Request: fold
Amino acid sequence: MFLLQVLCSLWVLCPPLAAQAQNDLSGSNSFSYQEQKQESHSITDLQEALYLSYNGALSPEWRASLAGNLLWQKSSELENPALRPFLSGYLSNEPLWLNATTSFLQDRNYEAGTATLETSNSAMSMGLRPPNLPSVTLNYGLALGEDDLSPKKTDFERTTRSIQLGYRGEGFDVFYLHSESEDVSRLPAVASMTLFQMPKYVAVDGTGAVYVVDEGAAQVLKFNSSGGLIQMWGTLGAGPGQFITPTGIAVDLAGNVYVADAFSARVQKFDGNGNFLLQWGVPGIGPGQFSNPTGLAADATGIYVADTNNNRIQKFDTGGAFLLTWGTTGAANGQFLGPQGVASNGTNVFVADTNNHRIQTFDTSGAFVSSWGTFGSGNGFFSSPRGIAVEAGGFVYVADSGNDRVQRFTTLGGYVSQWGSTGTGDGDFVNPIGIAADASGNLFVVDSDNDRVQRFLASGAFITGWGNTTTPAALESRREHRLDSVGGSFSYSLGAALTFSGNFGVTRTLAEDNLLAVDAETTSLWTAPSVTMRLLRDVSLAYNFYIQEDSADIGSVDTERRNLTHSTALTLVPYADVACVLGYHESALNEASAPETSSRGPSATVSMKPLRFANVNMSANQTVSEVEGQDPTVSYVLSMVTNVTIFRQNVTSLGYTHTITNDRATDTEGTIDTATADLYLLPWRRLSVSSRNTYSVSATDAATSFETVAWSTSAAVSWLLQEGTSLSTGLTHGVSNPDTGPRTSRWTGVSSASYQWQGHTASVFYSSTRDISDSQSIGATTRLVLSQTTTAGFYAQWTFGTDNDGDRMLRADVTVAF
Reply:
């Protein structure tokens, strides 16, 4: 029936397609079988997917594209087969375009197969882009869901509408945006306080307590590991301890909790009981400023923030003092497109580079280490990964949100296993986002669109889940949100000597929630001009200014906030291979209900290439952070990185970073010294050798001083035996030796061999991790090209170890294109 509906939709939307000589109609049909055994739990899964795509001209003026897919799935975990259709279309006649998508799901496995849930999602966009005139974009979305239970557990309707006007002239552009959304939930029972309204990210502390951010309720909820609610804190607002759109969460070694509030562009710090301690961050692009901060992570060296819309990672100390930042916009190594998840094991920092569909690894000073993954649904591929966690056993877990699954890797990026599929049953997901691991290796995954948290063993075996509990009442939940925003940007040059640029805008939001009985109105006004002057041929001066005024009327609480930031940078290029930048920044945040906070400090950077085959980068900065009425915190960061090309592509890199933080309020001083050495050799054209060594010492001088020494070393060899045949092997050893706890050590090794011939590929791999609990994996994969339109693949993996002896995964698939 669903296939018939899709085919009918294709014919109704584009009946003349078959008559057009310029049409491009293509598609594919794929069939796959997968068997997975984890501990005593065995899963079999059978899938068939049909995909159709059309792209062509309806007439000399009109072009159209249409795509649809239909997925059929039968699994031992499902009571009934599942069928999921999706259809999208695009129509254009410049300057007019139209885009529409729709999907429908009849889930007969709802509530363990005892009920049926029907959901649908439709969206439509229309735009007009006339040359030299304002552009117009209209958007509309509708989501519906209802089950056949008595009483119902699901009955909702969500609508979104927006209009955007824009105009781009010579040297400037302006825009206006108006959007409205309405979320109505009609239930004979409403959720109790343990029901999430929009859960996002999760963190676990040293005692095993689980903290979940509930964005929809503007709260943080604390549970025990079995889902028992311990406490909750937070309300809707912009004041201390309040949230507007809370997202990421992390817990440091002392048990303090950090929460990122994306809309407010700040991070708040609480103790483990939810008592507000401090906050930092304002909207902007400078150090310590954010644009939609999302994921958080904490280790012994600091707090990492995924500054999503600024496409970078920022690092702070536990007092909110800025330490360093890395990342720019792009798809190269070290660049990001909307990073959302971040995790750290104290040696490496793992970042879910969401819109690049990959994972990137860095050391704790931001130096790039490795990258793995690309867009897709196969093993080791990703579709918008959003959450990431690393556990003591040496494995990295990724919430592969777009594929509704969790994937497991070694810290070097070697694929190990996966679990999860689209659905509402135990172990199923719909848009999993947050993921965290406790000290025992248990995994907690936020199944966001199912409004729940699920707990798994490290192998992926389901343990328990919580959320969606109800208490009797007959209420209708209704939420409404309206936003108006107007702004623009400009750039004007007077020759090559003087350039004025900047952006400005004002945003007003209105929100109503009948269950929370809260009406909120917020207004934000900002402007950010900058001036760049070329004083001499080799000397330039840049000045940046940013000011934002915020006001919020939430219930009976009125708040106001003012943020002012300015910075100056003097750039000198005395020689062709030498550049010096001297800078100074100062910022202040003034809130009506909180003491004024400020930071300031100078910085200096020198980049030089003293020899044709070597370059040196040195930097130093000082930051003084101060809260009104308290003694300041002063931090110093000195770093140097040297890259030397030994011969052609043989490169070595040496780096050193020294950080000092002096908290005068507590008379505490902390230091972190990190040294790195990287080596890449190409002794022969077909052989490459790489190595990385890191050594760090962190110490705190307080009433009770402590010191931690950590080092890691890794090496990898890749050998291309002949065209199409290659071997690779890698080994990593990491040690952490704190003087207040036990010494930990971990060995990880990965080896693989691959062969390609006439389009066919085959490979085998072996990985081993040795620490507190040992594990080993061996596997093979192959892809055969049977004809110009048919391919077949096979994947097999066996895992042996203390916790997962005899686990296996087998997968076979065939795809026919036409």
Notes: The radius of gyration is 28 Å. The longest strand covers residues 470-494.
